[in-house]
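## Example record

The block below lists the input lines for one assembly entry, exactly as stored, with component labels intact.
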Amino acid sequence: MSAAWPRSRGKRVLLVIAILVALLIAASVGSWLWFKLNPVEIVEPPPGVLALLTQPIPDGPIADLVRRGRYLTIAGDCMSCHTRAGGQPFAGGLGLQTPFGTIYSSNITGDGDYGIGGWTPAQFYRVLHDGRSKTLGRLYPAMPYPHFTVVSRADSDAMLAFLKSVPAEHYNPPANRLPFPLDIRLVMIGWNLLNFSPHGFKADPRQSAEWNRGAYLVRGPGHCGACHTQKTVLGAEKSDKALQGAVIENRFAPDLTGNPRTGLGRWSAADIFEYLRTGRNQHAGAVGQMAEVVTYSTSLLSDADLNAIVTYLKSLPASPDTASGAPSAAAMRAGHAIFFDACTACHLVEAKGQPRMFPPLGGSAVAQQRDPTGLIGLILGGGRTAPTLARPSFQTMPSFAWKLDDQQIADVASYVRNSWGNRASPVSAKQVATIRSKLDLRQPLGRGD
Ligand code: HEC
Ligand code: HEC
Ligand code: HEC
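Predicted structure tokens for the full assembly:
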């Protein structure tokens, strides 16, 4: 062992205990830190944000590098975490809520004091590749470095060039509000030891160049698994359940595999492309966390890259089919009556819907996920679809928290999960009550409905 290993037996025991405690703390940290908790529902992108991402970059000595860097920060969706309401794009300060406290995103504009103005390309790459910051030290994985680790050095350098070119804001984001000992960044040594090793992207030579590009975008900058993959108790992604869907902040990021019921099995390549480009297709509309991903990231990617992502997603083997149990006849009758009263105005009888306006619910994957959290969260809290350049307006699914009690929401959810060919486990009033208690329902969506 190294010289740091204590000679006396007593000290060694103490050190081992200390390491175990650190690992335990790291374990509890991991179970929640992995969630991107997004307090702001997009209504319209803040002014200037889309312009910064889309307006032409004037010619100059490093214009090509800056253009490439901007494109890569779009692919990484750096905007939605690093921009607070009312702040300059990328100036940070957005609070990511966790059950234990708040983690604030950093200022990554070129400001010399609070931003990354004085950073070298090597220092910037160390953040993406290793999760270690020049100023903060070890980062919490609320910053998705376990995905960004595969980003190449050249891509990292280009991102830095772009971020240094955006208007700098002299702004110091608030300090994280985490209780002891989670506020000690050294805790992340334990977490990283168990859950993370820096690595690059390994292309699969048996697959096409397009597939490999898609794999790089999805696993790397796009960090789709940060939301769509279930976590272990330690908060690391379960590699054997990659992209098979996961609960994320009272919503559910659905299964993206070829499963025809819960996944993208019923969606054509063109359907997936249209959803990522415009935020809607004939099957669904992107709301919640996915609305931000679409608005700031996927809707602005090139056709070639979207096709690469689609090719990769279409290659994912279907997740196992695990639907179990069926609601009682009484729940189905009650659910039918509630659906008729509360839902048919938009989703129409037989839930046929109006494609690209109000999704048809027969075959809806969002409705049939193994865990009904997303459906319950949507009925309770409502949602707004992503505004995109292709579809600048949004559609609203109203919040039913005030109109329906827990049992009614359970019944209508069970009904939606088991009608028009749908099949999924029934929902209980207790499940609804749990999610209702976690939602911040002070600012209802669907005002005026
Ligand atoms: C899911 C939210 C999220 C996304 C997406 C995200 N970040 Fe972060 N980032 C954070 C948070 C939170 C921190 C601060 C973490 C901490 O305090 O440990 C951070 C920290 C950083 C830092 C460290 C800055 C410093 O002063 O130490 C850099 C650099 C950074 N992010 C760059 C990026 C880039 C580039 C992208 C896009 C490729 C990106 N981030 C995407 C949440 C995010
Ligand atoms: C910040 C979390 C988050 C990230 C990152 C994310 N998603 Fe999602 N995604 C969601 C949520 C939540 C939904 C459900 C949206 C809804 O209910 O309308 C969703 C829905 C989807 C759907 C529609 C599924 C369906 O059956 O309706 C697709 C396709 C999708 N995401 C693809 C992606 C891809 C590709 C990426 C990476 C480029 C990605 N997502 C990154 C959270 C995320
Ligand atoms: C005012 C119109 C309106 C009403 C009323 C309404 N919805 Fe919706 N619903 C929408 C819109 C718009 C979307 C698209 C956004 C989305 O996917 O979340 C949607 C989406 C959904 C989805 C997700 C479909 C998918 O696969 O993406 C489900 C499930 C759903 N609604 C169920 C219901 C239920 C159950 C009710 C009644 C309790 C209801 N809706 C009432 C407008 C409405």
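The chain has three domains: 32-195, 209-314, 329-438. Residues 340 and 349 are 7 Å apart (CA to CA).
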